[in-house]
């Protein structure tokens, strides 16, 4: 099949999922066309001859206070669908991708070309941004006019039904992880690069937005460190970073809490990690928690949104109410101070992650594409 994928090309979860999906589909023999405003960060240049990248350019014009990205995207979609004979258009993150795809579909229809649209809802496009009254009518419209709609968790599906007037079926297709790729790397982790031999390594990965509650991450670490020799790796960039950095400096913790920025070496960092912290206020799925678990890292998380569908209480880690630092600290201690239990949770985390293996999920998308193509033809 010729599949076009529209996504945000950044380090955010939706872009990562879309990119990994495209790479996996190309490995299965599909031609995959990424259409976005720059090359997705997880897509290495010339990764595979069946992966193509089409950049969306927006000519700047001083009259516009806001440059019309949707217009440029929908025009680019029309061109790519026609020139590359695309069979299906898969858009990740509803805003504004589903809306631009609908416009492209209508323009193509005028030329006698039928193109089915699959929309995948990721989280903040629904729970945070999309449900704002300024956007809700357009988001509702574009979801209802997609040929197939998927959500990355049951929780996100329920949120979508609660927040919008949805007239179409939403199928849950969970996010996934390429476990085989992780296992195939298999070289011993050189943890001494980041910490002393006896130190435990705690890790947090996110876009440091307020909803990630990164000050909770730091508080948990601060409360653990007098009792357990440990270091904290903070991976990512975002608006809360300055506040967190200031705090860490003031408290004299800079040698124990390392801010490593955005990284394409998540595999290496997780391979060193003993515990992953994700105390988010909202999380439709929690891809970073799944990535941690796939590396055998137990997760201490909040129970927000779809996190309980990924992290299993008392098995792959522990879940607490949002902001319940006391409980998160005590559960973290319980794991880190008990070597046998920690070892058991590491194995269980990996086992739990295998429920979301790429092999289990990719076929679901292929079936959705074939069904969407078939139903557009008749
Ligand atoms: O977490 C973020 O703020 C980034 C955001 C995105 O769209 O890139 O992540 C959302 O999609 C991920 C992939 O499906 C999910 O794993 C995240 O849980 C979800 N984030 C939220 O719901 C806050």
Name the helicity range.
Answer: 40-55%
Number of strands: 13
The CA-CA distance between the termini, in Å, is 18 Å
What bound compounds does this protein have?
Answer: ligand GMT
Mean pLDDT figure: 94
The main pleated sheet reads as: 7 strands, parallel
Offer a concise description of the structure.
By secondary structure, this protein is of the alpha/beta class.
Describe the structure.
With 378 residues, the chain is of the alpha/beta class. It folds into two domains: 2-176 and 358-376, Rossmann fold, CATH 3.40.50.2000; 180-354, 3-Layer(aba) Sandwich (Rossmann fold), CATH 3.40.50.2000. Helix content is 44%, strand content 16%. The chain is built from 15 helices and 13 strands. It has helices at residues 13-27, 69-83, 94-110, 124-127, 136-144, 154-163, 179-185, 214-224, 241-250, 266-272, 287-294, 307-310, 325-336, 339-354, 358-377, and strands spanning 2-6, 31-36, 51-55, 88-92, 117-121, 148-151, 170-172, 200-205, 230-235, 257-261, 275-278, 299-302, 317-320. The strands form two sheets. A seven-stranded parallel β-sheet has the order 3-2-1-4-5-6-7, sandwiched between helices. It has a six-stranded parallel β-sheet with strand order 10-9-8-11-12-13, with helices on both faces. Strand 12 (299-302), helix 12 and strand 13 (317-320) form a beta-alpha-beta unit. Helix 8 (214-224) packs across helix 13 and helix 11 crosses helix 14 (339-354). The longest helix has 20 residues, at 358-377. The mean pLDDT is 94. Ligand GMT binds at residues 12-15, 17, 93, 122-124, 152, 175, 207, 209, 211, 282-287.
């Amino acid at each position: 099949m010729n599949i076009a994928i529209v996504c945000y090309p950044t380090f955010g979860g939706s872009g990562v999922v879309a990119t990994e999906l495209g790479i996996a589909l190309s490995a299965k023999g599909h031609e995959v066309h990424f259409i976005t405003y720059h090359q997705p960060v997880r897509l290495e240049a010339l990764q595979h001859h069946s992966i193509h990248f089409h950049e969306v350019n927006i000519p700047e014009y001083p009259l516009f206070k806001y440059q019309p990205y949707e217009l440029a995207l929908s025009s680019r979609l029309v061109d790519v669908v026609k020139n590359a004979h695309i069979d299906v258009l898969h858009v990740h993150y509803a805003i504004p991708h589903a809306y631009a795809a609908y416009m492209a579909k209508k323009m193509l229809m005028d030329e006698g070309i039928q193109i089915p649209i699959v929309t995948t809802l990721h989280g903040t496009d629904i729970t945070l941004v999309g449900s704002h009254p300024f956007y809700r009518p357009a988001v509702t419209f574009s979801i209802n006019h997609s040929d197939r709609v998927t959500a990355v968790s049951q929780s996100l599906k329920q949120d979508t039904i609660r927040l919008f007037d949805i007239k179409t079926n939403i199928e849950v297709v969970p996010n996934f992880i390429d476990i085989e790729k992780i296992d195939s790397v298999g070289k011993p982790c050189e943890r001494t690069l980041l910490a002393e031999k006896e130190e435990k390594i705690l890790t947090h990965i996110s876009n440091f937005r307020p909803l990630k509650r990164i000050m909770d991450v730091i508080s948990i670490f601060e409360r653990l460190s007098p009792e357990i020799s440990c270091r904290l790796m903070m991976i990512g960039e975002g608006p809360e970073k300055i506040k967190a950095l200031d705090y860490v400096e003031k408290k004299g913790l800079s040698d124990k809490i390392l801010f490593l920025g955005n990284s394409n070496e998540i595999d290496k960092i997780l391979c060193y990690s003993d515990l992953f912290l994700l105390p988010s206020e909202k999380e439709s799925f929690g891809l970073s928690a799944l990535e941690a678990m796939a590396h055998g890292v137990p997760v201490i998380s909040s129970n927000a949104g779809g996190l309980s569908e990924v992290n299993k209480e008392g098995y792959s880690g522990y879940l607490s109410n949002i902001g319940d630092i006391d409980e998160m600290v005590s559960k973290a201690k319980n794991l880190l101070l008990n070597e046998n239990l920690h070892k058991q949770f590491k194995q269980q985390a990996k086992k739990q992650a295998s429920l979301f293996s790429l092999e289990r999920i990719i076929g679901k998308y292929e079936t959705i594409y074939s069904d969407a193509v078939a139903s557009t033809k008749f």
